[in-house]
Specification:
Blueprint: H1 11-17, H2 20-39, E1 43-44, E2 47-48, E3 50-52, H3 54-60, H4 66-78, E4 82-85, E5 96-100, H5 102-109, H6 116-139, H7 180-186, H8 199-217, H9 226-239, H10 243-257, H11 269-272, H12 275-288, H13 312-331
Antiparallel strand pairs: 1-2, 3-5, 4-5
């Protein structure tokens, strides 16, 4: 008989992602990372990690499709809520390790949505730092990957069993504990964080985006909704979107979904501007625009000087004139 586990999730997290499955996965990662953090175990780059093979995750969440699990995990990484890497002793071991964005996760759990954007920006810098550092380490094949505080748990042991841990209720006590020497390296990474909309112009910009969306969809979305402001501001700060980019995505998906009774419900800010969707929607929108028609080039006019055409009358007139001149010269004795 298969072992039975209890899985739970935070309602705020499920509502934020509009996904119970993502909320369950994040809760599971959080629970075991917190245990490792408190035990000072599996510490890399100053933060605690947990690990699981694909087989272990598929078995643990056997009510989810395997492909869907990895799609949700990939989306959580792209959205800046988890970091994925490998710290296995053997190079052929493909077990993934996971770190969590403590601040962003706790902020959602407690409904402090105004803290999420900055937490994601900082965590993305950390993701890039870990990625670059691991690439450098991979050059040295004989270098072992151990914890900074103690040796990591052997990957040959059984995966960490399922456990339900209550979310932290004190947001000030969680955070990304990056060592001081790593803070200096973070500024040197290639992470590009675009300028955020200034507070006095933020609401005006969001209002323009939401007004255009309402106009196209005949809806009444509010520009003051925290979730809407966060999604729009994230695309500006993290991806450098301008107003025309928002309009392009709105136009593209409206043309595609507005007349579809099933898909019309997804014409909303949380779907159109979510990190996991926004890039592919924008690329598709740009690709769908027809290329501007090429104006036909006008042939260059070459001026050709017209040559006079002599008629028979001209010839006869010239002969008579020549004879007249010749007669005049004879009379003059020339």
């Amino acid at each position: 008989m298969k072992e039975v586990h209890d899985h739970s999730f935070n309602v705020n997290v499920a509502e934020y992602f509009r996904s119970v499955e993502k909320a369950i996965l994040l809760k599971e990662f959080y629970g075991w990372i917190k245990i490792n953090k408190d035990s000072k175990r599996n510490i890399h780059y100053g933060v605690a990690w947990t690990y699981n093979s694909s087989e272990a995750l598929n078995e643990k969440f056997r009510y989810m499709k395997a492909k869907s699990i990895w799609r949700w995990i990939d989306e959580l990484s792209t959205e800046g809520f988890i970091c994925i890497n490998r710290f296995n002793e053997k190079r052929y071991d493909k077990t993934n390790w996971y770190a969590i964005n403590w601040v962003a996760y706790a902020a959602i759990c407690e409904g402090k949505y105004e803290l999420i954007l900055d937490a994601i920006c900082e965590f993305k810098k950390f993701q890039r730092l870990v990625f670059d550092s691991q690439n450098e380490k991979s050059i040295s094949q004989n270098k072992k990957r151990y914890s900074q505080n103690e040796k990591s748990i052997s990957q040959n042991e059984e995966p960490i069993p399922s456990l339900t841990i209550s979310e932290t209720s004190q947001l000030d006590n969680v955070g990304i504990e990056i060592p001081i020497q790593l803070h200096d390296q973070i500024d040197k990474t290639k992470v590009v964080v675009h300028d955020e909309i200034k507070p006095n112009k933020q609401l005006q910009f969001v209002s323009e985006v939401v007004a255009y969306l309402n106009q196209k969809t005949n809806q009444q979305f509010k520009e003051t909704t925290k979730e809407t402001i966060q999604f729009i501001n994230s695309r500006v700060k993290l991806d450098g979107w301008e107003l025309e980019d928002f309009k392009a995505v709105i136009d593209f998906k409206t043309n595609e979904w507005l007349k579809d009774d099933k898909m019309r419900q997804y014409l909303c800010p949380s779907t159109l501007f979510r990190a996991s969707n926004a890039e592919k929607y924008l690329l598709a929108a740009k690709a769908s625009k027809p290329n501007p028609p090429v104006k036909p080039t006008q042939p260059t006019k070459v001026h050709v000087e017209e040559r006079p055409v002599l008629t028979q009358h001209d010839i006869e007139y010239s002969q008579a004139a020549f004879a007249s001149v010749e007669q005049m010269f004879k009379q003059m004795g020339v």
